[in-house]
């Protein structure tokens, strides 16, 4: 039960289909969110921009409307699945309010915009741990948010799994 006069905190957790993001959410639930405060947990999933894919050589592929509808439906199913998984992780929270948002666009920009729009006091996100080459091409979402979000950013790294040492 939240203490009388307890500070209200809004914690935004960026979630996606990766293990890293679910680890970050679990870590946040164990270490940050508490019913001693009047915490609101904001779960945000960002669907990638609509599929007009551009290959590395600059040629664009235009899809038929049926294919676009199928891609859109699949994107919605992925978003719903991610949110259901995230809400299941949050189900044991006491007095903590959980809100969900699904947005479209480039995750780097949308996450930063939503921290501002939703009045987040803290942004929590996972780190995919991409190698240098992949990070160079894709850009690091967590790095971009750490530089551009208008609130503190907590980047939670998933521990590297080590072989069982008996």
From TrEMBL:
Listed CDD domains: USP_At3g01520-like
Residue ranges annotated for the UspA domain, each copy included: 9-157
Domain of life: Eukaryota
InterPro entries for this protein: Rossmann-like_a/b/a_fold, Universal_stress_UspA, UspA
Stored Pfam families: Usp
Leader sequence residues: none
Protein's UniProt name: Universal stress protein A-like protein isoform X2
Organism per entry: Rhodamnia argentea
Gene: LOC115752853
């Amino acid at each position: 039960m939240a203490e009388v006069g307890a500070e209200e905190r809004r914690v935004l957790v960026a979630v996606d289909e990766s293990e890293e993001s679910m680890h970050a959410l679990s870590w946040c639930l164990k270490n940050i969110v508490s019913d001693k405060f009047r915490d609101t947990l904001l779960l945000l999933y960002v669907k990638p921009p609509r599929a007009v894919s551009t290959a590395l050589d600059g040629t664009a592929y235009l899809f038929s409307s049926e294919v676009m509808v199928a891609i859109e439906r699949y994107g919605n199913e992925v978003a719903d699945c991610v949110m259901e998984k995230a809400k299941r992780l949050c189900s044991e929270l006491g007095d903590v309010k959980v809100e969900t948002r699904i947005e479209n666009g480039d995750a780097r920009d949308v996450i930063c915009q939503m921290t501002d729009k939703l009045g987040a006091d803290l942004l929590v996100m996972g780190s995919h741990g991409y190698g240098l080459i992949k990070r160079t091409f894709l850009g690091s979402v967590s790095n971009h948010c750490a530089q551009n979000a208008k609130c503190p950013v907590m980047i939670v790294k998933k521990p590297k799994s080590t072989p069982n040492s008996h």
